[in-house]
Every structure is written in C-alpha cells, then in structure tokens.
Write a structure and sequence with these properties.
It contains three helices and two strands, in the order αααββ. It has 125 residues and is mainly alpha-helical. The protein has one domain. α1 packs across α3.
Length: 125
C-alpha cells in the first residue's frame, strides 16, 4: 500500500495555487459585476462620489496583486459590524504613534482601526 504523505512543501504549493485561483476568481467576478443588472453596490457608489483621500485608503504604493488581494478580501475603512473592527482583529498591527493608520499581517497598505475585511479573526482572549 502506497502512503501519500503531504509534505510542507506540497502543502504550501497547493495553498499558493488555491490562493491564486481564489484571487483570480474574485477579480473575474468583480470585473463581471457579479451578475447585477448594471447597478453598483452602495459602497462603490459612495466611494466614487467621494474625493480620493490620502488616509487609510491610499493604495498608491501597492502592487496590482496587493491591491487585488485587498479588494478580494473586501477591506473597508468603516466596519459594517461594530463587533468586528480591525482594532479587535488578531491580524491588525496598531500604529506606533497611536494615531493614524495601522497595518495588517495579511493585507498590505494602510489599515484603519475601525476597518474590516472578510478575513477578520478575533483577538485571543
């Protein structure tokens, strides 16, 4: 009987392939509009109506894949769920000065303490 153990290398290769596929699929679906009848989601309409801020939404220094990951994880500066903020997330790194934007161990770029993404993970108790 052949034993098919998964090595760390095989796991990481498969994980990176799955991540690439999910990011690509998310980008494809976003570009297709998700099957809407041409109406944009409220967040996109609000973002289009507001002037570009250089706060925690500034992604000018990021690569296209980093921006795509940020978009596919649906990062927003203000959480839709008051119980799930970046400040209460295990992946959030608070700014050193205590004010301004923090960072994230998963998403590149500036992150608002009151923000949220779909990879939110509660801080350990």
């Amino acid at each position: 009987m052949k034993r098919d153990d998964i090595t760390r290398r095989k796991f990481l290769v498969r994980l990176s392939a799955a991540t690439g596929l999910s990011v690509g699929a998310g980008a494809f679906l976003a570009a297709c509009g998700g099957g809407d009848s041409g109406s944009a989601p409220e967040a996109e309409v609000a973002a289009a109506a507001e002037p570009v801020a250089m706060g925690c939404t500034d992604v000018s220094g990021l690569t296209d894949p980093e921006v795509l990951l940020r978009t596919s994880l649906q990062y927003v500066d203000e959480t839709p769920d008051a119980d799930k903020t970046c400040e209460g997330c295990a992946l959030f790194v608070a700014p050193e000065s205590g004010a301004g934007c923090g960072t994230c161990t998963l998403i590149k770029g500036p992150i608002a303490a009151a923000g949220y993404c779909t990879s939110w993970a509660a801080l350990p108790s």
